[in-house]
Amino acid sequence: MTIYYFNEDGRFTGEGTSAICPKDGATTIVPSSNEDVWNGIKWIAPPPLSQEQLDVIAKNEDEIKIENQIKKMTIKTKSGKTFHADYQARINMMSGVMSAEFANKTETTWKLYDKDENGENIETMVTLDELKEATYLALEK
Fold it and tell me: Can you give the three-state secondary structure of 27-83, one letter per residue?
């Protein structure tokens, strides 16, 4: 069972599974279900969640989902390379295309979304055409 923690201002501070060891700053502990909770001494029936608390929980869950979706935004070029496609990556790709064209380069080093055996992003040579394609695909996404 997930337990939601709120500070004295009623702001959501996190969630966990223990009513005995809440997160730092949490003063109000609200279970996420209508089940009774064991507080280490006795079973306690949970108080009903206020609409404000439900709204805070829903808003935080939505923000986390959106944040995770943005982090996972990727595109794959015809050559099979996978690039980041979030907002910052788009800016980086446009800057990379512009600087490569300015310097008359046909390829450049780029960190891909693909990971190596250590979980690090792979740094590899990409052609200017690949970078242009990745930029276009990211902007279309």
Answer: CEEEECCCCCEECCCCEECCCCCCHHHHHHHHHHHHHHHHHHHHHCCEEECCCCCEE
CA distances to 90, 92, 122 from 87, in Å:
5, 9, 20
> Which regions in the chain score pLDDT beneath 70?
1-47, 70-71
CA gap 63, 85 in Å, rounded: 19
Distance CA 77, CA 33 (A): 45
Instruction: Return the residue matching tokens 């990727």.
Output: 74
pLDDT in tens, 70-98: 667 889 999 999 999 988 999 999 999 99
Q: How far is Cα 93 from Cα 141, in angstroms, rounded to an integer? A: 14
Two structure tokens written together for 62: 């939505």
